[in-house]
């Protein structure tokens, strides 16, 4: 059984946890009952419309609408008046089912070399790690350096992911070039080799040493 947390569109408050079963219509019906609205659509935290129940994963955070466009709760909600102009990078953390609203600055400024600061340093490297922890598969988007993800996995001590990444990096390396050289290339190599050195060449059947 999957469980999701529902919020009203544009609001980081009044959350409700519901079980996901049946169809998308069943989820909308449950959302309407829980939130006291007439739910017509559901969005994920990135503002993407959920049009298939299969797209919903366990512990997802969803925003329920009554027909209006998606409103990003982080840009729509404002911090307390005394903090305006000081903390503008508000975010909500789900820690074991408990939600904490704070700022990125709070998490990283005190310990800039700590784990939390490292996690927010480059989201591109952390996203594959989060996805791996969620469903056990290594998925890295184009343009993301596997070595960067590997260093991130080592930092957090995720041994099983380290093994997957090391294999993926090895498989991504170009194969050694074993294509045969031409007679002209061989003569050029031979002429370029100092007289006191040896040139080692090997074909499919035998090895040739030239002194």
UniProtKB/TrEMBL annotation:
<dbReference type="InterPro" id="IPR011333">
    <property type="entry name" value="SKP1/BTB/POZ_sf"/>
</dbReference>
<feature type="domain" description="KHA">
    <location>
        <begin position="3"/>
        <end position="82"/>
    </location>
</feature>
<dbReference type="Pfam" id="PF02214">
    <property type="entry name" value="BTB_2"/>
</dbReference>
<dbReference type="InterPro" id="IPR003131">
    <property type="entry name" value="T1-type_BTB"/>
</dbReference>
<dbReference type="Pfam" id="PF11834">
    <property type="entry name" value="KHA"/>
</dbReference>
<protein>
    <recommendedName>
        <fullName>KHA domain-containing protein</fullName>
    </recommendedName>
</protein>
<dbReference type="InterPro" id="IPR000210">
    <property type="entry name" value="BTB/POZ_dom"/>
</dbReference>
<dbReference type="InterPro" id="IPR021789">
    <property type="entry name" value="KHA_dom"/>
</dbReference>
<dbReference type="InterPro" id="IPR036572">
    <property type="entry name" value="Doublecortin_dom_sf"/>
</dbReference>
<dbReference type="GO" id="GO:0051260">
    <property type="term" value="P:protein homooligomerization"/>
</dbReference>
<dbReference type="InterPro" id="IPR051082">
    <property type="entry name" value="Pentapeptide-BTB/POZ_domain"/>
</dbReference>
<dbReference type="GO" id="GO:0035556">
    <property type="term" value="P:intracellular signal transduction"/>
</dbReference>
């Amino acid at each position: 059984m999957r469980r999701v947390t529902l919020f009203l569109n544009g609001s980081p408050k009044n959350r409700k946890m519901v079980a996901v079963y049946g169809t998308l219509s069943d989820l909308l019906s449950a959302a309407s009952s829980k939130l006291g609205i007439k739910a017509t659509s559901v969005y994920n935290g990135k503002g993407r419309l959920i049009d298939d129940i299969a797209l919903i994963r366990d512990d997802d955070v969803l925003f329920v609408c009554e027909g209006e466009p998606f409103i990003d709760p982080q840009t729509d909600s404002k911090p307390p008046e005394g903090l305006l102009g000081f903390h503008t990078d508000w975010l909500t953390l789900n820690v074991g089912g408990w939600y904490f609203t704070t700022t990125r600055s709070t998490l990283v400024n005190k310990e800039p070399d700590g784990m939390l600061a490292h996690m927010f340093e480059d989201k591109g490297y952390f996203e594959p790690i989060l996805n791996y922890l969620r469903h056990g598969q290594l998925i890295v988007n184009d343009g993301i350096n596997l070595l960067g993800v590997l260093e991130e996995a080592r930092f957090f001590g995720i041994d099983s992911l380290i093994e997957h990444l090391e294999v993926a990096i090895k498989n991504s390396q170009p194969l050694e070039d074993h294509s045969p050289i031409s007679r002209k290339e061989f003569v050029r190599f031979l002429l370029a080799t100092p007289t006191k050195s040896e040139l080692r060449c090997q074909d499919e059947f035998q090895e040739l040493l030239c002194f």
